[in-house]
Amino acid sequence: MRRRRSLTLEVRRQVRVWGRGGSMRATLSAFIAGLTLAGMVSLARAEDSEILQQPDPAAILDIAKGFGSARMDKDDNGDPMISGRVEGVKYVIYFYGCENHENCQSLQFSTGYTDPLTAEQANAWNSKYRWVKAYSGDGSNFKMDVSFAGGITRANLEEQFSNWDSMAGNIKDFLNDK
Description:
It is built from five helices and eight strands, in the order ααβαββββαβββα. The chain has helices at 2-21, 23-47, 57-65, 119-128, 154-177; strands at residues 51-52, 69-74, 80-86, 89-96, 106-113, 133-135, 140-147, 152-153. Strands 2-3-4-5-7-6 form a six-stranded antiparallel beta sheet. It is globular, with a radius of gyration of 29 Å. The chain starts with a helix and ends with a helix. Mean pLDDT is 83; it is low at 40-44.
């Protein structure tokens, strides 16, 4: 019997504390507000969570057209290829790891010029710029790879195009100054 009384007294004390200071109401209100805010953030992220598991040539062409001229084509193996121009620089997007010309795994932005870079010039570029890499050899080649392993959001893919777009002017300037 004694246990029951102490439990009842403890419950009464808690009810008085919550009723007087409103701490239970405040805690509950803060909890509900937190859940609501978390839900809104999740909803905002869900709107941008269109995850592409592999490069969809039509979607990529659509994004490319937002940065300049672009058209769908095929490479020598019959895989999809996009040819375009951004900031006055001609470029190609190659699709890699394709099965029967579909279900590709990655893509590569590429631009090339007949005037070759020396190894020193390519190294100078590569030490200055992070995203687009220069290669010496049979011409001046600049490449940027995009992997779709694990998926990529459309927003991130658009950011890759934005990187390429901003680097195109740097490529042009670099070649003019060499």
